[in-house]
């Protein structure tokens, strides 16, 4: 049962909560022990909140999952994790996330609480509304970044919030485009029948362009260069460009993958590029 609970909590998805840690890097806080500890705690708390939502999603879809050839193997649908245990775990995780956030400050509680409320609305209503569902995903990442900045007691930068929103929307539309290309589109996710492939294609291209353009502007902004004391952050632009192009390639040419957002975390060129970008950013900010 414990193994089933851990699987249902989807710890492999916690990588998304690295957005909580992003403000630490760009606030030049990696060499500040107190800031690192506060950021780490915020990451853990957001991960607990996210896991409670994964349990909620599986509880809400349990009957549909039991009739699905693949999803029937999920812990709750298969019976490996009893429904009453899943409900209790969901409540405990959400409570721990909210109560623990008070160790940091009330603003972190507001961000995590807002995320939980948004995801409840998404699970029961908003995921059935085309385009709004993707905006909800983007809003969830915005709340991750806000939780990270609130934990550090630093003001969120407009650039970080804008790039996060555009990037997460880009990934969301990429996932929808990939799903629309599947033969079973409309069966695996009912909202897909309300989507237009042409519209999603345009939105995917626009968010890709907007994401990279905003990042370029950020690296070249005089305030950015003055804050970090270097002009070399622009050298990281090439990694963001490659990452966006590689993801679009996964969306268009990997129809056999379950999800492009899952596939990109298994794609070695994408992962290598991500690691190189992270190293380059740290070197530029903290060494040059």
At a glance:
The protein has 288 residues and is mainly alpha-helical. The protein is built from 14 helices and no strands.
Q: Could you explain the architecture of this structure?
A:
By secondary structure, the protein is mostly helical. It has 2 domains: 1-155, Tetracycline Repressor, domain 2; 157-288. Helices cover 70% and strands 0% of the residues. It has 14 helices and no strands. Helix 6 runs antiparallel to helix 7 and helix 12 packs antiparallel against helix 14. The longest helix is centred in the first third of the chain and has 28 residues, at 33-60. The chain is globular and about 55 Å long. 36% of the residues are buried.
Write the layout of secondary structure elements.
Layout: H1 2-8, H2 22-26, H3 33-60, H4 62-66, H5 75-78, H6 83-101, H7 106-124, H8 132-152, H9 158-181, H10 197-220, H11 222-228, H12 237-253, H13 260-263, H14 268-286
Helix pairs in contact: 3-6, 3-7, 3-8, 6-7, 7-8, 8-9, 9-10, 9-12, 10-12, 12-14
């Amino acid at each position: 049962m414990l193994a089933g609970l851990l699987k249902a909590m989807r710890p492999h998805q916690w990588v998304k909560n690295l957005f909580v840690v992003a403000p630490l890097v760009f606030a030049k806080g990696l060499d500040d022990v107190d800031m690192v500890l506060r950021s780490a705690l915020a990451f853990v708390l957001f991960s607990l909140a996210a896991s409670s939502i994964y349990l909620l999603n599986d509880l809400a879809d349990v009957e549909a999952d039991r009739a699905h050839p693949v999803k029937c193997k999920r812990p709750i649908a298969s019976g490996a994790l009893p429904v009453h245990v899943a409900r209790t775990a969901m409540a405990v995780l959400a409570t721990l996330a909210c109560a623990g956030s008070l160790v940091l400050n009330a603003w972190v509680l507001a961000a995590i609480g807002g995320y939980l409320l948004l995801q409840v609305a998404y699970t029961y209503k908003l995921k059935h509304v085309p385009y709004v569902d993707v905006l909800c995903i983007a809003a969830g990442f915005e709340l991750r970044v806000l939780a990270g900045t609130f934990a550090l007691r630093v003001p969120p930068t407009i650039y970080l919030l804008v790039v996060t929103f555009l990037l997460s929307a880009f990934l969301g539309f990429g996932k929808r485009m990939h799903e629309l290309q599947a033969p079973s589109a409309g069966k695996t996710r009912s909202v897909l029948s309300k989507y237009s492939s042409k519209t999603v294609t345009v939105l995917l291209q626009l968010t890709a362009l907007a994401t990279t353009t905003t990042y370029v502007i950020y690296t070249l902004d005089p305030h950015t260069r003055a804050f970090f004391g270097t002009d070399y952050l622009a050298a990281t632009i090439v990694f963001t460009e490659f990452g966006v192009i590689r993801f679009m390639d996964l969306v268009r040419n990997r129809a056999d993958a379950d999800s492009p957002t899952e596939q990109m975390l298994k794609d070695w060129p994408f992962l290598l590029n991500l690691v190189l970008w992270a190293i380059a950013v740290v070197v530029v900010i903290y060494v040059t």
